[in-house]
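Ticket closed. Logging final result for Kinetochore-associated protein 1-like.
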Amino acid sequence: ALVEKPSSEDKKTFRYLTIEEDKASLGIYHVFLLIEDGFFHISNLALAEIETAMEKMDMGSLKELQSLMKIDFCSTSEHHEEGCSTAVVFNMGPEIHLMIGGDNENVLTHWTMDPRQTKMCLTHSVDNSLIPGVRKMVVADNLLYVLDTEDSLSLWDLHFLVMVHCWQDLAIHDFELTTECGSASRVAQDTGSMKMITLIKQDNSQINSMQIRCLPSMTVCYSLDVSSVSCLVQTNINMDTIYLVEGICENPERWD
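Final structure:
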């Protein structure tokens, strides 16, 4: 095992996992695995070649490809004292960037690839003077949407990590970005038709409101009542299909 199980059953061992292709070396991938006090970075991962070697049962090629893989661990304990909560990976040109969210003194840390050492290095951090902590982040073009621990959504300039807007009047439980052509993975290519799907908390109610909002105005164009025990699924969401997971409350008799 890469890490030990958390001491508390309420804590998650793994906080975030993503695979990103290296734009400078097509066919080569990077894996980022976020845990409480840092992240693992697996580089030189040739997925297509590994798949071909497995299909041919070519053990020699598999061993060679495995020997080229590199696994690094970067500690975040000095920057996120209360642990990491989530992360997002994005590209600026050919460069791979990692944004990590947390609580306490530093709520955001920005990591980039050092081309000389081929490892991730800290380049920027944001303190908790504007937001108390980070629950979720989504990147769209040059913008970063951040949902904080007090259910407020804010918009940040991705290059300078400066907050440019905040919707404090909305108690947002969850959100996703989508376009007519697909989900947030393609948002940067089609920002003109971008919309936001939000789950809004209702006051003293066990019902949330799922709302489709036009951007950048945040005007509601569609809404639907759903269970308060629900979340949006991060998959290929489009305007024809939205995936929502609903549960039941622990005390359903308390429903109004």
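The chain has two helices and 18 strands. No further action required.
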